[in-house]
Amino acid sequence: MILFILYVILSSSGIILFKLGSTAVEFTLTDKIVGFNMSYTSLLGLLCYLISFVLWMVIIGKNDVSYIVPIGLAATNVTIMLGATFFLGEAFSLYKIIGLCLILGGIVFLNMGNA
Q1: For the whole model, what pTM was predicted?
Q2: Among 79, 70, 63, CA closest to 110
């Protein structure tokens, strides 16, 4: 359970940090030279995302894929939605609240069926 929570936090943080640092990402192509520049925020997001990927491999290796993948994706989506509202200032509408409730309801149903 601790690995799962850590996965959700790192994966969601990675996405939020990617978004925060996305304005500084640059690609350049000049005469036979390709350039790529990233902010430290984006690099930190990449590190979080890579660590979360390794955790995800461990998690799906120890659980039924048909159970853990929907719950993992749902928990990550909910965390990203909340993080985008609080850290990125994105609007939180009635439709997002309804969607959030449906996602959380799906997690509850999956847990009831797996008990």
Answers
A1: 0.82
A2: 70
